[in-house]
Amino acid sequence: MEFYFYAVFAVQAMVLVALEFGKSGKDQITTSPAFNAFKNNYLVVYSLMMAGDWLQGPYVYALYVFYGYDKGDIGKLFIAGFGSSMLFGTIVGSLADRYGRKRMSVIYCITYMLSCFTKHSPQYRVLMLGRVLGGIATSLLFSSFESWLVAEHFKRGFEAQWLSLTFSKAIFLGNGLIAIIAGLVANTLAGTFNLGPVSPFDAAACVLAVGMGIIMLTWPENYGDQAEGKNIIDQFTKAAAAIASDEKIALLGAIQSLFEGSMYTFVFLWTPALSPYDQKIPFGFIFATFMLASMLGSSLASRLMSRPNLRVESYMQVVFAVASGSLCLPVIIQFFLPDERSESMTVGGRMNLLGFCVFEMCVGIFWPSIMKMRSQYIPEDSRSTIMNYFRIPLNIFVCIVLYNVSAFPISVMFGMCAIFLGMAGVLQRRLRVVSEKHWNRNSDVSAEEKLRDTEAEPLNI
């Protein structure tokens, strides 16, 4: 393996260690033992849930190829997963507000385990069912758990600033360290132990079963809107009205869809961008390098969110600009560097690798930051429903990209992603302006109320 890959990985690792162990007192937040116990319990559960998801990722495509399906059939299976998340997952995920976030988290585990079991069958219709179940589970993963955490955090009387600690650590572990370990475990099971491409899915089912047990034994239930006589239509109507009536929520949803749509498109594009002539490069090690970059971003986000005078809405404008610039790099390389055919990674590929690491670092900053903003702006009684509304345009976008992925050059697709990230930055600037007006207005109202209360108090002479 080329020294270049080791060098990129080593530099990121050293920066990460410096960030994690070089925190000063002002970068740390003083918490309570009760909060630490609560946070650690959630981090264990969230890590297990993400491990169940990451274990499957490296071998989904490989399993379908193993069963003899071509690229067109596999593309339809992937589209079915995102389409299911949009249609069925949105409805099922929104039920968490009414019927309980803990209950829907358990259903996530059951649904995803069933999806894993379908991988034992080579029949196309059974695999399609598995993709549908996986799409539903994905919607639950990215709504029910966060909704439970936010509600339980404030229910127990913990400070709002402490929530950012849980968010940043969850992403640091779940989207970084756990992803690297899961990739290595999956590779060991399927490759080293020669158990076949279905073995990582069996491991994922086992991990999910352990997590489900912890949820059932340690998590209390919490709910959103449980008003009598309301059905699912009323719930969706209320959530839609909240989005339409509050510009901050609408902007947040648009920002999330633009960024995540670009992120999922990047997942399909980075492999051919780094090896345009099918060069043999260490994809597993490169994936681990990306996850390390994401961990670096989440560690940086933890520092940023711990600063009381720095608001998320401000620094995220810079993050989106940097992310947009990093995905412009393949477009620039396509125009200014000549084609270079070789058996190893090209000069353009090496430059792209650096840009992609920067993008993954932005992803690591994005996740805890968007969670923090969602906890501030989305109303508690419709939290899960609104969060699943946000995923509808995202899933539509990804389905369109998957359907047309071979119709456009890679440089065009990266350029499109860069434009979307730039648009997210513009909307983020608008969100900052609107939110500052909101906070200033609330501060003025609080000051007036305090003054009136003071004037109304009788003088004790």
Kindly describe this structure.
- GO terms for molecular function: molybdate ion transmembrane transporter activity.
- Keywords: Cell membrane, Ion transport, Membrane, Transmembrane, Transmembrane helix, Transport.
- This is Molybdate-anion transporter.
- It holds the Pfam family MFS_5.
- Mediates high-affinity intracellular uptake of the rare oligo-element molybdenum.
- This protein folds into 2 domains: 38-220, Growth Hormone, Chain: A (Up-down Bundle); 246-440, Up-down Bundle (Growth Hormone, Chain: A).
- α5 packs antiparallel against α9 (199-218).
- The protein is mainly alpha-helical and 461 residues long.
- Helix content is 79%, strand content 0%.
- The chain has 16 helices and no strands.
